[in-house]
Amino acid sequence: MNTKYRKHIKSEHLKLKRLNFKNLILSTGKGILFVFGWIILFGSNTSTAQCKSDSVVTYQVVGETRVIASVEYFTYDLKDSLLTNRLIEYQNGKAFPLYENKYSYSKLKGNTVIAYENCKWVAERAIFKPVVKVTRTYSKNGLLLSEVHDDLAAEPNPANLDTKIDFRYTKTGDLISNLLSRWNSTTNSWVGESYVAYEYKNGLMTESTTSDWDSSSQDWKAKWRSDYVYDTNKTLLETVSYRFENYAWIPDTRTYYGLDSTQALKGVIVQKWNGAKRGWDNQSYYVMKLNDKDQTDTEIHLSWSGKEWVVDLTFFYIYNEQGQVIQILNDKKEIMVDRFCR
């Protein structure tokens, strides 16, 4: 990476070691309103270290009371493949359906095709109306080859093709590029819109560049770039993103990954580039305390006040014997997510 902004700063790694984890937990005594949008990530049955569930219940704290925020239900076929998941939101104790996903599975030329329809609840008609259909095709080795989006809500012609992403890999399975195309209904063809290329060195991804198609010059124009830095153990240490402006790469965001093996801590620091100061400003900090199985036991979210890190949220994770997340607790050890495993 040849840029005048490239300066590796190791002080952030030292900050991770200086944080007193016990004091961090004790400083979260304030009541926390549960972040519904964030926790929805844990409702999925596809996240890592999570069991297949018949249902997932999330809660939020209103005042001093813990109430149900949402319930997600799952159904499966005889092969235990996911057929549907339906999300119900609760407001003042009343249930309001939000969406339902319907899944189907097939084979095409030896490849696996998984499609799902996302249906949003239409209260006036009391039905789930299909909005978008996503079709993903996987190779025999499980690599994602393509993803096609059909806009089922388009008017007046429903089931219009919307976007498609094609993925290319090396012979060893490393991602080389992905091309985002949009359907042109006038020419009935796919038109390239965004292209991401990946570079590797010694088996490690070192750079990714995002380019947009310029119809006037009929050429790809670089817009974004991310550089990846590793330590001597080939562990990701830092990611820096740049945007291309006025014929130069301008820093935008830096994410630093720290590890303190003595305290069994992992940390992620996110910083934004300050052009006026010609340096990085702290933004977010995520600290994970690991258990003896190297799983996240406690997770703390902090934000930068301008002078110091301030604790915003604290979560505790509970696992079953198979090492899968079954509960997430808040700072008061109240259950905020219940996963009812199959």
Structural class: mainly beta
Number of alpha- plus pi-helical segments: 3
* Rg of Cα set: 23 Å
Percentage beta strand: over 45%
Fraction of helical residues: under 10%
Strand/helix succession: HHHEEEEEEEEEEEEEEEEEEEE
Low-confidence stretches: 1-14, 27-47
Number of separate strands: 20
Biggest sheet statistics: 20 strands, antiparallel, barrel
Give the overall average pLDDT. Answer: 86
Oligomer: single chain
What is the 3D form?
globular
What would you say this structure looks like, in words?
The protein has 3 helices and 20 strands. With 342 residues, it is mainly beta. The chain has a 20-stranded antiparallel β-barrel. The longest helix has 8 residues. The chain starts with 10 loop residues before the first helix and ends with a strand. The N terminus is likely disordered.
In short:
The protein has 342 residues and is mainly beta.
List the helices and strands and how they pair.
Layout: H1 11-18, H2 21-26, H3 36-39, E1 53-62, E2 65-76, E3 82-91, E4 94-108, E5 111-122, E6 127-138, E7 144-151, E8 160-169, E9 175-184, E10 189-201, E11 204-214, E12 219-230, E13 236-245, E14 248-260, E15 265-274, E16 279-290, E17 296-304, E18 309-319, E19 325-329, E20 335-341
Antiparallel strand pairs: 1-2, 1-20, 2-3, 3-4, 4-5, 5-6, 6-7, 7-8, 8-9, 9-10, 10-11, 11-12, 12-13, 13-14, 14-15, 15-16, 16-17, 17-18, 18-19, 19-20
Note the main attributes of this structure.
single chain, 342 residues, mainly beta, disordered N terminus
